């Protein structure tokens, strides 16, 4: 990771959060930058920006680190649709932006070939070094690329995902553990926690 010091400081923060350097994280960084620019916003530490992510790849960690959308705060919504698409909403203005990665990841084919060699245990030391070199090159290019070359960005106005609703909990009648009522399962007329209902 010799080149990390030359990467933007806010990207280094993403690496700290994610605990490794990878092109996926760099994609997420570029997504977050493009979205904040399109919405004319600074990164927020509260809940005014909501991100809806359509995959659970490394990219999402950059969005959490940079935009402050996190699972725990409820402003990071995961839709398991397997697409490199990220939609952001600004609750205060009602504006939204959909960022779709159209790629390509620089050096992707060669990295894929080398990864397969590593996974099957036949990679040479040179292969492993080349893999790192390709990773660093891809990261550097993605982090500094013009977002118009990487993404299709569409501004939108749309209904916001509901903001945090107060939750009611009650003890499960079988195990006694407090459970959010809307997550309990009706079993012959009794509301049980999902564990006990199985
Ligand atoms: Zn990663
Ligand atoms: Zn239970």
Please give a structural write-up.
InterPro entries: FmdE, FmdEsu_dom, tRNA_methyltr_O. The chain has helices at 9-18, 23-39, 59-67, 108-119, 125-144, 147-150, 194-197; strands spanning 49-53, 76-78, 85-90, 95-101, 151-157, 169-171, 178-180, 185-187, 190-192. It is globular. Helices cover 38% and strands 20% of the residues. It is of the alpha+beta class. The mean pLDDT is 90. The strands form three sheets. It has a five-stranded mixed β-sheet with strand order 2-1-3-4-5. The protein has a two-stranded antiparallel sheet with strand order 6-7. The protein folds into two domains: 4-157, 60s Ribosomal Protein L30, Chain: A (2-Layer Sandwich); 166-198, Wheat Germ Agglutinin (Isolectin 2), domain 1 (2-Layer Sandwich). Helix 1 (9-18) crosses helix 3 (59-67) and helix 2 (23-39) crosses helix 3. It contains seven helices and nine strands. Bound molecules: zinc ion (2 copies). The site of one zinc ion has 6 residues, from helix 2.
Gist?
The protein has 198 residues and is an alpha+beta fold. It has helices at 9-18, 23-39, 59-67, 108-119, 125-144, 147-150, 194-197, and strands at residues 49-53, 76-78, 85-90, 95-101, 151-157, 169-171, 178-180, 185-187, 190-192. The longest helix is centred in the C-terminal third of the chain and has 20 residues, at 125-144.
């Amino acid at each position: 990771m010799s080149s990390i010091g030359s990467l933007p400081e806010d990207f280094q923060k993403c690496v700290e959060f994610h605990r490794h350097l990878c092109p996926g994280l760099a994609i997420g960084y570029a997504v977050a930058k493009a979205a904040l620019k399109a919405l004319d916003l600074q990164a927020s530490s509260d809940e005014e920006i909501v991100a809806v992510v359509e995959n659970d790849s490394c990219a999402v960690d950059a969005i959490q680190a940079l935009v402050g959308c996190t699972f725990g705060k409820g402003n990071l919504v995961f839709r398991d649709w397997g697409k490199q698409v990220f939609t952001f909403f600004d609750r205060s203005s009602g504006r939204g932006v959909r960022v779709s990665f159209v790629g390509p990841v620089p050096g992707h084919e060669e990295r894929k070939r080398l990864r397969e060699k590593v996974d099957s245990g036949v990679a040479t030391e040179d292969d492993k070094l080349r893999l790192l070199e390709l990773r660093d090159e891809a990261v550097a290019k993605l982090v500094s690329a013009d977002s118009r070359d990487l993404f299709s960005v569409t501004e939108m106005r749309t209904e916001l995902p509901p903001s945090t609703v107060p939750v009611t909990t009650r003890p499960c009648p079988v195990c006694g553990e407090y459970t959010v009522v809307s997550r309990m399962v009706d079993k012959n007329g009794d509301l049980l926690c999902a564990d006990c209902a199985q």
